Amino acid sequence: MRNEIKVKVKLFDRQIIKWFYGLLSAVSVVTSIIFLFVDIEQKYKTIFGITAIGIFLLIYISIWIYANKRNSILLTINKSSVEVKFGDLFSEESDWKAIAFNEYYDTIVDNIIIAQSTLNGMYINKYFDNKVDKLDRIIASDPHLSMKAVSQNLQRTRGKKTKYQLGSVCVVGDYLLTALTHFDVDNKAYIDMHEYISFLLAFWDEVDRVYAGKTIAIPVFGSGITRFKKYDMVSDQELLELIIWSFKVSRIKFTYPSKVKIVVYNGKRDKINLQALKSFQE
Question: In the chain, what are the domain boundaries?
């Protein structure tokens, strides 16, 4: 059971067929050249043909199995390297790591405003346990972030009162803290789909401002916790594809050797089709 293949990529997936045809074309060119100089007796041609078909079937099945079991994929977008992989954001090797906050940049990890199980909660507990006031001061004193303030919510009884523009970024050490969601009166995070897209474009604009030729690792923003208004279900695959699409249209460029890493939580492995992301390849 441990080696059971979770079928995320269909057997006749368009990207699998395209990959196979590319390989088949290369093999056909080589064999055509060989047969210009090698003559096969008629009695062996049938055996040779059946053997070749069998080998090609095995190659196709092998490609399909690999596509379903692969752990990462590397794409070239805007002449930049974008790696999508399964793993742990905190242990990922990168110069910058992005963590999503709500629009208030709240820091209360109490399973009401911020859940301990979220990346947001884990980040605060990991780096600012018993010293959250230090993080609050860094956020409040960030000169760039102060220009992204949009309003005050003086009616809030818990948490902060200053709202910031979605997509804004506050640099804290080697982390980029970004405002992803609105927060309602019941302390529930939410965002409209068009706002999510606007968030992504604003986020990439902020990254372009600070990244300085460094590699950045980001999560699948909104996965698992965000409520998308007017949408009953937004899959992790759709969120991942929106992130890649937004990077593509943003025209931001990461010069070699820097790259973008999108780190997908390991628990989402069965819900993500990495092979489908090849459609974004330039």
Answer: 14-69, 72-280
